[in-house]
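Researcher: Please translate sequence to structure tokens.
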Amino acid sequence: MHKASVKEVMPTILPQVIYEVIITSTSVNGEVNAAPFGIKFLDTELTRFSIKIYKDSKTFKNLYETRIGIVNITRKIEPFLTFMGREKNKHLLDRLEKSKTINVPRLKDMEAYIEFTVDNILEKDIYGEFNCSVLDCYLGKTFIEPICRGSYAMIEVAVYLSKVEPYIKQGKYIIELEEAVKHSLKIALKTIPREVLEEYVNILYSVLSEQTSSVLKKCLLQLESRL
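Model: Translation complete:
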């Protein structure tokens, strides 16, 4: 079976650029997890990449145990919102399918996939830096849509909200996160139809913890939005 490189499948990718993706992984007991992360390719041949992962996350545990996973690549906004919270498992099972070669499921209807193995883990205080090697890369379903600033701003909202609980655990003030969330929401409010934005916000409410949801509600109220 032919195995393709990232450079063959996605030749415009550059090293040292952080790309937002969704990682699927499994525990030694077969428990599947999906979560958004930023990955950065480390070499010009695009054979190796790194991921920074908080130690208290399921992805850290799974990749630490099994050392294999899948990078799911898409430009759709909804999957990033759906799989960023701790209550996402209710959405996961119906979205999975068998991958090409490794024993980790992939998400359905993604644009491309990278199957990988973990080479080593550099452990820091609260996170680990996973250095990974590409095993295979292949295309999925193409999704073509012009760029909407508001849609990508909602990914920023999700990224900032994902930092709320780690910040609180570290005793950090979250005011800078709140300001960043509000800035991104302002862009979304200007560029996305209200019904679409309501759908995105409701997805976030369905997967966020009560603590993080309260931050989102506070930001929306301060913007005088009743979503």
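Researcher: Any highlights?
Model: Residues 175-191 form the longest helix (17 residues).
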